[in-house]
């Protein structure tokens, strides 16, 4: 397992599995019930012998003697068989046969880490999360986090030595206990122990002392509590004590421009100055009177001036999007992978999975139609474009900042899957799923990216450009487009972009990477000049990590 928690496509299977297991459990309970009823029924045939005190008189009657023999020979043995019979087989084998597909400890930890990452990116407080009051969400939320759940989240943070979140979740568990939640398997002593330790590790000795006193109020003889109390009091009494200011860690993302990335993900505009923003417009686009666009031009919106990123609305219908999502199922199309990506983030590495599928551009009617449309709109050659890549991100799913083109030295062969060179940290993803597509295609570098949104996302999941300061919220049926390369073929590192973690919802995108070959006379002049133009240094946002 260990690959469920970020692809909703995979997790839907778990919902069905649980439903089937529940039906199987009902069958099992019914079978046990039937068995018990049979046992009770046979008991009624065995009555206490009224002659028990005088067996001789009883046995002097031949019918009595025969019936006793028969009962002892057959009926008690039959009962033994009945009691020995095992009605749990069906249920147990049902469970066993599925155990391969069931989530394991690693999956659960991954789920906890995904929650912590979301909390960190979107700055959610633990009470909001515990009550499930997330933005954008509707009626589908069912469960609240219990004291045990909060404790587990605290423990997940503890495994990562992330004491800021240990403290937060242990405090949440305690608060819920105080509010009267009683059904928990962890005791307040354990929680307080972690709570005070987390405070201590963050350098907040006063608060750690308060927490330890709370622990001792419940259990005055607690050894650890007593020695911690003595230690904190001793430390606090030191005259030359230096106040340590707790640092809020940035563990859940790379240190490199993590702050800008997270601010952009929350929709806080950090990079586009008013002057830059004033240059962004909306218009109808017909690609200079292209015959296929004259009657129904597409609505084009500027998202960013440098690099120029534009969005086209309604380039895929609701139906088109649904058909593509149906095609992007491992059972439907051959080139679908559940890619497990390990991402080193700061001091830790997180593994997350992503469902991704390559759909042959000419292999499906709807794909062909949409790819042709990209050609009409951008004016670019589509015969050298890569196959459409469909990806699904579930809750917590993200894609860290990266560039789509092959790095500095184009002739260098990075043996990696599609675009997944995480530039700064040089994390190389597993290679087996897709061979080097550049070499395989022989069509040069990825000149441009067409990113089509196949779903809305209720909260989170935006595409952001941390260096350029651009933000694109997924809008179903719209596509964003940008050039990855400068007109001279050099990669434009300002195009570095990322997918923010999905907070609520399931995000589907389809990527089309256009290649250099065939574009020699096609690259549009207006886009070209604005890319060359760049920005004056006073208005350009730079983030140098
Ligand atoms: O999903 C997104 O918003 C961005 C995806 C992306 O950058 C990629 O697949 O290269
Ligand atoms: Fe990308």
From TrEMBL:
- Identify the keywords attached in UniProt to this record, alphabetized: Dioxygenase, Endoplasmic reticulum, Glycoprotein, Iron, Metal-binding, Oxidoreductase, Signal, TPR repeat, Vitamin C
Cofactors: L-ascorbate
One Pfam entry name = TPR_P4H
Q: One GO term of the cellular component aspect?
A: endoplasmic reticulum lumen
Q: What is its EC number?
A: 1.14.11.2
* Top EC class of this enzyme: oxidoreductase
Q: Which residues cross the membrane?
A: none
Cellular localization per UniProt: Endoplasmic reticulum lumen
One Gene Ontology term of the molecular function aspect: iron ion binding
Where does this chain mainly localize?
endoplasmic reticulum
* Every Fe2OG dioxygenase domain range: 384-516
**According to its UniProt entry, what is the function of this protein?**
Catalyzes the post-translational formation of 4-hydroxyproline in -Xaa-Pro-Gly- sequences in collagens and other proteins.
What's this protein's family per the entry?
Belongs to the P4HA family.
Q: By what name is this protein known?
A: Prolyl 4-hydroxylase subunit alpha-1
According to its UniProt entry, this protein's organism is Hippocampus comes
């Amino acid at each position: 397992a260990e690959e469920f928690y970020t692809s909703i496509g995979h997790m839907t299977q778990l919902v069905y599995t649980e439903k089937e297991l529940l039906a199987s459990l009902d069958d099992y309970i019914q079978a046990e019930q039937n068995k018990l009823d049979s046992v009770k029924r046979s008991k009624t045939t065995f009555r206490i012998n009224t002659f028990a005190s005088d067996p001789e008189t009883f046995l002097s009657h031949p019918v009595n003697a025969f019936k006793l023999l028969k009962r002892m020979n057959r009926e008690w043995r039959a009962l033994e068989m009945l009691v020995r019979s095992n009605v749990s087989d069906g249920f147990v084998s049902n469970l066993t046969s599925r155990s391969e597909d069931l989530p394991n400890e690693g999956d659960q930890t991954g789920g906890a880490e995904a929650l912590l990452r979301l909390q960190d990116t979107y700055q959610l407080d633990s009470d909001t999360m515990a009550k499930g009051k997330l933005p954008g969400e509707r009626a589908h939320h069912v469960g609240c986090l219990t004291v045990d759940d909060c404790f587990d989240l605290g423990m997940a943070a503890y495994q990562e030595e992330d004491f800021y979140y240990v403290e937060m979740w242990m405090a949440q568990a305690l608060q819920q206990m105080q509010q009267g939640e009683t059904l928990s398997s962890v005791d307040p002593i354990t929680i307080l122990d972690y709570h005070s330790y987390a405070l201590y590790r963050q350098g907040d000795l006063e608060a750690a002392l308060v927490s330890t006193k709370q622990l001792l109020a419940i259990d005055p003889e607690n050894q650890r509590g007593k020695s911690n109390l003595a230690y904190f009091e001793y430390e606090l009494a030191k005259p030359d004590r230096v106040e340590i200011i707790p640092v809020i860690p940035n563990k859940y993302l790379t240190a490199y421009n993590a702050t800008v990335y997270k601010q952009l993900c929350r929709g806080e505009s950090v990079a586009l100055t008013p002057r830059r923003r004033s240059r962004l417009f909306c218009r109808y686009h017909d690609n200079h009177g292209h015959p296929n666009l004259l009657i129904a031009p597409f609505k084009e919106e500027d998202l960013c001036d440098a690099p120029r990123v534009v969005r086209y609305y309604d380039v895929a219908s609701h139906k088109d999007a649904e058909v593509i999502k149906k095609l992007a199922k491992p059972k439907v199309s051959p080139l679908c992978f559940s890619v497990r990506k390990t991402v080193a983030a700061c001091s830790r590495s997180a593994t997350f999975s992503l469902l991704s599928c390559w759909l042959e551009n000419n292999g499906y009617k709807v794909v062909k139609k949409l790819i042709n449309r990209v050609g009409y709109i951008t004016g670019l050659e589509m015969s050298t474009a890569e196959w459409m890549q469909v990806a699904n991100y579930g809750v917590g799913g993200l894609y860290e900042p990266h560039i789509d083109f092959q790095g500095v030295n184009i002739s260098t062969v990075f043996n990696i899957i599609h675009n997944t060179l995480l530039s700064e940290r040089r994390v190389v993803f597993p290679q087996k799923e897709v061979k080097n597509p550049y070499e395989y295609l022989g069509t040069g570098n990825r000149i441009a990216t067409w990113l089509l949104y196949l779903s809305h996302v209720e909260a989170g999941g935006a595409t952001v450009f941390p260096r350029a300061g651009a933000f694109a919220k997924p809008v179903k049926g719209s596509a964003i487009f940008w050039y990855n390369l400068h007109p001279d073929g050099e990669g434009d590192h300002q195009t570095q972009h990322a997918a923010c973690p999905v907070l609520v919802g399931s995000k589907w995108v389809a990527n089309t990477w256009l290649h250099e070959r065939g574009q020699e006379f096609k690259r549009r002049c207006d886009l070209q000049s604005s890319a060359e133009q760049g920005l004056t240094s006073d208005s350009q946002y730079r983030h140098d990590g």
